Protein 1
Amino acid sequence: MTKNIIVLLILLQQFLFADSQTKIIDMHIHSYTDSDFGDREPASDHYGKKSSSNAASHRAETFAAFKKWNIVKAIVSGNPESVETWAANDSNDRVIKGILIFSPHDYGLDSVKFEQMIKDKKIEVFGEIGAYYRGTTLSDSIWQPYLRICEKYDIPVAVHTGGGDPGGTYSWSPKARLKFGDPYLIEDVLIKYPKLRIYLMHAGGEDWPEHALRLMAYYPQLYTDLAVMLWVEPNTQRYITEFLKNAKHAGYLNKVMFGSDQMVWPYAIEKSIIFLNNLTFLTEQDKEDIFYNNAARFLRLEE
Ligand SMILES: [Zn+2]
């Protein structure tokens, strides 16, 4: 009986919280078609939670979370067909079109086709770039034609930092090495394209939070998201809590943006929001900045 009352109170609190939740921009959402749904993720997450059953239900569940939690914009990256499907089904103008890319020639792309996709507004943010998973870095020559185009059209760039899924190197990403997740490996990009809008994904992960923070200090144009770290494992939550404390202490919280990286588990969006909301060392203003204001500035939504 008492247990039931507690459960009810928790549900009530979550309901009220959702209702009053400040606007959110999710800088890190993944889309799929059935052709690649679940290819890179295990059937259950660290906590044993099962994934959505297919690409369509995954999209519906993610859209429901957008509505429930007042997520007004989301950077959606996946294969180009999935991103188009999401945009076509998005009646609330929430989807900002990204592209999930591991190697420059994924999806038969080259720089000419890439530039055309940008002109056609099929790519509004370049990323998530998972160079890490194929053993390259954004500073490598193979990525430079794409970055020059992003600079020319003022397209924001989103780059994976930190490690990947445990065991990934033994399965779908044999060239992935933890060392390739070091944010310092994009330093040459920041120097070559000083006007490029670029953000780190995962804030350097468990591996390189100090390098992420230092790079953001040294290159003030650099932002980061908090994606995956807020929910995927207790260990990432521990690292991201430290990162946020350090970013606040150092005065760089104004370049930190919310992201969930829900992958095939839409419930992770809610879990990430609740985790961030429960960090008591962040003020209400800090949270509003992380959830919305910093991303709105980075994306120049107000213009
Ligand atoms: Zn991601």
Protein 2
Amino acid sequence: MKRLLFLLIIPAIAGAQLFNKFFIDKTMRVDYYHTGTKGVEILSLDKVSPEGIYSGSKTQLLDPLNFGEYMVRVYDAASAQMIYSRGYSTMFNEWQSTDEALAGIYKTFHETVRIPFPKKKIQLTISRRDKNMLFREIFSTVIDPNNSAQIHSGQRTPNYKTVKLIDNGPSEKKVDLLILGDGYAKADMQKFRNDAKHFSDVLFGTSPFKERKNDFNVWVIEVESKESGIDKPGKNEWKENALGTQYDSFGSARYVLTEENRILRDIAGQVPYDAISILVNDNRYGGGGIYNLYTTCYTQADTKGQEWQMDYVFVHELGHSFGGLGDEYYSSSVAYNDFYQPGVEPWEPNLTTVTDTAALKWKSFINPATPIPTPWRKNEYDSLETLRGKLDRLAPDYYEKREPLYKAEEEIIKNAQYKNTVGLFEGAGYVSKGVYRPAVDCRMFSLSLVGFDPVCADAINRVIDSYVK
Ligand SMILES: [Zn+2]
């Protein structure tokens, strides 16, 4: 018993000592430009600036998850010891598989990595995965925290009212979820407060977040926009919304993202945060979520009776941005070309191209009696999805036309032979063949209020652990 305690306590102490040796209790925000096209990318440093207390774990300085398309690593310059790392994904890597990038057009995104504030000179590197999932360095810079000319300490934050909606304790031991609003004008602020409370309740009503509610703090910043609503470039509708979120991202009507990273980060930096969720005050179905970046979600139903879809979107998108999960659905139209390439194993914990059980990343969840790959009524489902994919999502009769197809798909999933079983189900990651998912249904697969399958729930739990343990 004593020995077990000893083993459990020592790594935590060693981690905390490492933090105190190399860092102070503050966050360093490193901004850079990410430029390129298909197959080409260049990173260049923008600004380094201090933020508030460090909200991440002080005992797990090296990334325990290995999720994300990129990895930031920090080395103590004097000893070359790696003292911090974290995985993340970017708008840039998603944009790289759009038609625009394939046509050779160049584009620049502004991005940020946040690290604990070092005491001494560091080398910061950023690496990208190669086809074998190994990280290859694409950027390196030296930062001296004691060189005041290199650290931009000026005030830049417009001060909005902040509220700690759920307070479960010190940030370093909790996941600090920050909820921001975009497209909420002054007159919409009570709606924003209600929305923030509603979606927080929805999240903590969904497993595994439900069981881990005490591991979260929830912060809210009452960001005020000049106008109600957000941009819809495809309809030439533009709003003066504070965070710059817009529909039609990468040409996809329902994809909501913002390219105003600097503004977003300036505002978010008012509170300690580990994850950002942006509620958009608009009524077209939509959202988005990128690992370790942010989630977006619409907050007004476009059609009566479809309000539940917002709750679906909010939690689904957090599955991406927080849990590092990939989309398990396929055949719904997305803006990507070959997002998951044949023969390349996705890093997402819930997608695979591997069909050999012994090498499968979720093999520990599989009962030996379950056939691999696992049969389901895929052909029937695929023909329904083909019809569904032909519908105009923005047409007024969309839901009416979708309903019979939706019901028929639901029937296939609900009556699946291997329902509630972890196996290897073909069809995932935007493709019908060659990419597999762990269960017949999951919040990352069907557009429904179904929970996360055991493999996805485990990934979310591991992410929570990386902040709180
Ligand atoms: Zn998704």
